[in-house]
Amino acid sequence: MQQTFGGPPSTVDPSLVDGGIAAVTKPERTGQIQAWADEWHGDLVKFLSRRTTTAADAQDLAQEVYLRLLRVERLDLIRQPRSYLLRIAANLLYEWRLKAPQARPHDIHALDVLAAADDPEADAIRERRAQRVAAELQRLTPTARVALVLQVREGLSYEEIAVRMNASRRMVKRYLLEAYAQLRARMPPDI
Q1: 7 SS3 class
Q2: Residue 77 CB contacts under 8 Å (≥ 6 apart), including other chains
Q3: What is the mean pLDDT of the chain?
Q4: Is the dihedral of CA 89, 92, 93, 94 positive or negative?
Q5: Cβ neighbours of residue 132 closer than 8 Å, sequence gap 6 or more
Q6: DSSP per residue over 50-62, as a string?
Q7: What SS3 class is residue 92?
Q8: What is the DSSP string of 9-68?
Q9: How far apart are CA 184 and CA 159, in angstroms?
Q10: Does residue 43 contact residue 82 with C-beta atoms inside 8 Å?
Q11: For residue 152, which of 131, 169, 170, 175 has the smallest C-alpha distance?
Q12: Which of the two residues, 13 and 97, has the higher pLDDT score?
């Protein structure tokens, strides 16, 4: 009897199993798997660690080995449990490597950027705010709007704005005070 676990065609050596013995009952089955795990877990993890990039990957694959072992209907047919466990592990490694080119390691900063980039609600809020600010800017007097844009968008000082607008520093200050007062009066504080 040959079991397959999704790996290459020769997944289980037929010499590892034996036929004709009565099936193991459920409590005996979990006890048998626990005994094998106690005895060969170190070998299994070592085998996987030599073939994976991180210890966490090796531990994850070892857990998957035990999960697959739980799916085996007749444990009593397995004559060489250590070899059988390592064969399951080899098959898992084969599957894991097939999937590995699609998987990339994640660092916490990349995940934060990804999460921030895919926030449609925040994008919608930003868009509404930008539209509201643009509409309110249009309602300002032309001189107040120009002074505000020069200060906020271009980061110019009062003197630089005065030169660009051909006005005094005092008038620029008055335009900006007017613009900020109108915006405060018309817009909610959260924008």
Answers
A1: coil
A2: 1, 17, 18, 19, 21
A3: 79
A4: positive
A5: 187, 191
A6: TTSSSHHHHHHHH
A7: helix
A8: S--S-GGGB--SSPPPPHHHHHHHHHHHHHHHHHHHHHHHHTTSSSHHHHHHHHHHHHHH
A9: 24
A10: yes
A11: 175
A12: 97
Tokens 């999937």, residue located: 99
At residue 17, φ and ψ (nearest 5 deg) are -120, 160
Measured between alpha carbons, how far is 20 from 16 in angstroms, rounded to an integer?
A: 14
Structural domains present in the chain: 14-102 (no CATH), 112-186 (1.10.10.10)
pTM of the model: 0.41
10 — pLDDT class (breaks 50, 70, 90): very low
Residue 12 has pLDDT above 50, yes or no: no
pLDDT band with cut points at 50, 70 and 90 for residue 34: confident
Cβ count within 10 A of residue 137: 16
pLDDT tens digits for range 61-112 = 999 998 888 888 888 888 898 899 899 999 999 988 888 766 666 566 666 6
Write the CB contacts of 129 (distance below 8 Å, at least 6 apart in sequence). Answer: 191
